[in-house]
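Putative immunogenic protein: structure, please.
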Amino acid sequence: MRKKLAALLLCSLVTMPVLEARLRRISIGTNPVGTIYFVVGSGIAKLFTKELRVPARAVPHAGSSVYLALLDRGEITLGLNTSLDAALAYRGSAPYKRALDVEALARIFVMPYGYFVKARSGIETLADLKGKRVVVDLKGNASLAALNWAMLETAGLSKNDITPVAVGGIEQGVAAVTEGRADAAPIAMGIPLLRRAHAAIPGGVRVVALGPEATDEALHELAPGSRTHRLEPSSEYVGVSQTTMVSAFDTFINVGSHVDAEDAYLLVKTLHENWAGLQNDYPALRDLSADGLDPATNPHPYATGAVRYYKEAELWSEANDAQQAKVKR
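Here you go.
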């Protein structure tokens, strides 16, 4: 009997996840406490702790531009980043002084993004922002400034047509509109912050559609990693009373080159196999199926271990191969 138990114990040790023999802890860089990135990052950390038996936690920062550099240096294990930030970081484009070693594990959700105004402001279109005070630069997330300008350009607006307003981040931009210090600010659609603004502003808010020159190609050229996105009126999206075209970008969970291929493989496998459970707990993930974690629209390459898993799960396509070759340095 003792020999049988010893054999079973030895077998269990041999078959334990490889991750336990490598990563001793997992830190996931996110945006500040209270943001959707922190909430989802905390949920993923909880999943990794449970399934992989490795201590994991979400580590909040001022913005995703900040912790991409930490990811590159191996000071954190993973990071939740927009496709916009990841594209600039991997290419070494401004504000990054050099190309960073960051790769994708998986896309985890799609974020619709656009400008909002006070519903009673008289502003109906982006073109109506001419001569107005418009939040453009977000110090906590440099890549969003490029997308903000790209959205304004779809209505033919340039820097000379508006009074640009710089703020620390999305939350400060919303406050600027709410308090009357700006006429329009960019916001991720459907997040609690916009709901609170809608409740606080007499008459509520209005989401303003992109201009007539909006195309996927035009947005991606000016803000790599972005595209157009149609919103339909629903209880989820306050300020949307009709079909409205806004921009969108993907959010990826990224990894630095210090994490080896076997660990990356197990991290992706764990995410994919437990995706339904994450969706039950976190509504932001519900629009994306488990088979949509590896879109062929990635602006930076997938990690080698992630590619291996997606191929084994029959989720990798010829389009993925083409995009991987296109974006890889």
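Notes: Strands lie at 26-30, 56-60, 78-82, 102-118, 133-138, 163-167, 185-188, 205-208, 226-231, 244-256.
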